Amino acid sequence: MDHKNSKKPTYSRFSQQELPAWKPILTPGWAIASFITIGTLFIPIGLLALSASDNVVEISDRYDEVCVPDDYSSKAESYIQNPDVKKTCIRTIKVPKKLVAPIFVYYQLENFYQNHRRYVKSRSNKQLRDPKAEDDTHDCFPKSKTKDGKPIVPCGLIAWSLFNDTYKLSTRGKEISINKKGIAWKSDRKAKFGSNVYPKNFQKEGLIGGATLDEQIPLSEQEDLIVWMRTAALPKFRKLYGKIETDIEAHDSIKVEIENNYNTYKFGGRKKLVLSTTTWIGGKNDFVGMAYIGVGGICLFMGINFILLYVFRPRRLGDPSYLSWNRHPIA
């Protein structure tokens, strides 16, 4: 035999699967102990998570419909597109429980598909971080260049549609300061948006999609833009607007002055202002606790069933008489 042309693999204990292995036998005791352990661990964790979620104070106020004047109730799109109509809207929010700082201010949009393929691709990551790549706009159509061929920075539909509603909050006659620093991910500010890249020709001509940007501030410091450009996976999403760093007492009334500028009426979208505190589990989220309790309950139920079966209908482990071909032998 010619060993040089042989296709026989080189022998090793690994390739021949001869290494030591653990092959556990799942006995009734192991199965019962596993289910009971998972159940007794998961249910308390779920109860703690639900308790933490219940301690979150969340206030949500939908304003897209109520902030349209009665004269424009049947033509909301005309109202939002008319530059001569005042867009200021005053809302009052009652505080049911004390809001302990930090209080997070979100805007929530519904029926807005940021995960649309064309929308998601309409950006230039290279342009956002490198000032020498401002002409890299081939993926940004239709918002890539001005009519005279000058590049738009930042280009693309995502940046062009930047959310531009604004909120001013006050209580007991005093303005509530909203801190807009540190609302974006640090990794995004450092790695994805350049500290020496500045907006150019942004929202300068044609149809204006949303907010404008200060051309004297680099993109790495334009945190509203950074938050907006981390696109959402679902059509209902929240994005962080800012943080309130003072407590708000229970039963206070918060006066909210809203500049209702963002056009969600074109596609039947909805807008909400959300104030929320957090706990160790984050914001209000009952799903995590209910999931733990559900899985734990199922495991406990299965464990108790196995115990009853093992006590009342036991069988010898590895008994070949239970094999199907032994239970129904061929005559």
UniProtKB/TrEMBL annotation:
Keywords of this entry: Membrane, Transmembrane, Transmembrane helix
Origin: domain of life: Eukaryota
Major subcellular site: membrane
Cellular component annotations (GO), alphabetically ordered: endoplasmic reticulum; Golgi apparatus; plasma membrane
Transmembrane segments: 29-50, 290-312
Subcellular location: Membrane
Similarity remark: Belongs to the CDC50/LEM3 family.
PANTHER family according to UniProt: ALA-INTERACTING SUBUNIT, CELL CYCLE CONTROL PROTEIN 50
Protein name: ALA-interacting subunit
